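Progress against Task 2.4 (sequence-to-structure conversion) is shown through the following example record, which the project officer requested during the mid-term review.
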Amino acid sequence: MRADFSVTLSRSRQAEVERADEVLCAQPLSDWETISWREGSRGRLRAKFIALRGFRVDGDGTRHIGWLIGQRPARGQSGDWKYYWSNFSPQTPLQKMVE
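Structure tokens generated for the chain above:
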């Protein structure tokens, strides 16, 4: 998914609205969790994930509550960062979002 959609992690209407990729890049590496989710042709697939509860902001300012989910390669792996928006419930565990 393109990462240039706008998000904010604050409920405040005055809060800064940022690009999804910028928000995720600002998160400490220690907050990312390694998750293995299925068997691939070269073994078990794994990557680092993070989910941040917030709002996706449309061009007209309309807000949609949900999860900004980031995926990046795990240690020793290569690949691109990926970005997702989801409307999972607030109680959904990260492992379930990844599956």
